Amino acid sequence: QVQLVESGGGLVQAGGSLRLSCAASGRTFSIYTMGWFRQAPGKEREFVAAITWRGSSTFYTDSAKGRFTISRDNAKNTVYLQMNSLEPEDTAVYYCAAARNPARVGLTYEYDYWGQGTQVTVSS
């Protein structure tokens, strides 16, 4: 079992930055691929970024490339999402998720555990 708690969301102006954190409980955190997803009002949950269990590989959706950075600290059971150059289109609830052996990191059904989400609002 893995429990996930996100933090770090908030209100920021366009062009600003935020760093989201996701703290995981459970001794097996290090073996999970970790992902960040987001869901805007009236839209489906979408993939943002993912990182493999050793941190050796990272994946991003096109809109996040060059602006967002995913990282993890297995000693702290925490995964991060550094978001720079934020745009109003980034406004959403951001969720972290854990998957054992995802075939495709961008698919929600590959993930076994989800956090409750943290709100990110970017004003224009």
List the helices and strands and how they pair.
Blueprint: E1 3-7, E2 10-13, E3 18-25, E4 33-39, E5 46-51, E6 58-60, E7 68-73, E8 78-83, E9 92-99, E10 113-114, E11 118-123
Parallel strand pairs: 2-11
Antiparallel strand pairs: 1-3, 3-8, 4-5, 4-9, 5-6, 7-8, 9-10, 9-11
Helicity, in percent? under 10%
What does the largest sheet look like? 7 strands, mixed
Q: What is the typical, i.e. mean, pLDDT?
A: 95
Question: Cα-atom Rg, whole angstroms?
Answer: 13 Å
Number of helices: 0
Unreliable stretches covering 5 or more consecutive residues: none
- Topology as H/E string? EEEEEEEEEEE
Count all strands and give the number: 11
Shape summary:
globular
| Distance from first to last alpha carbon | 40 Å
**What structural class do the secondary elements suggest?**
mainly beta
Strand-residue fraction?
Answer: over 45%
Account of the protein in words:
Strands 2, 4, 5, 6, 9, 10 and 11 form a 7-stranded mixed beta sheet that branches. Helices cover 0% and strands 49% of the residues. It has strands spanning 3-7, 10-13, 18-25, 33-39, 46-51, 58-60, 68-73, 78-83, 92-99, 113-114, 118-123. The protein contains no helices and 11 strands. The model has no long low-confidence stretch (mean pLDDT 95). The protein is an all-beta fold and 124 residues long.
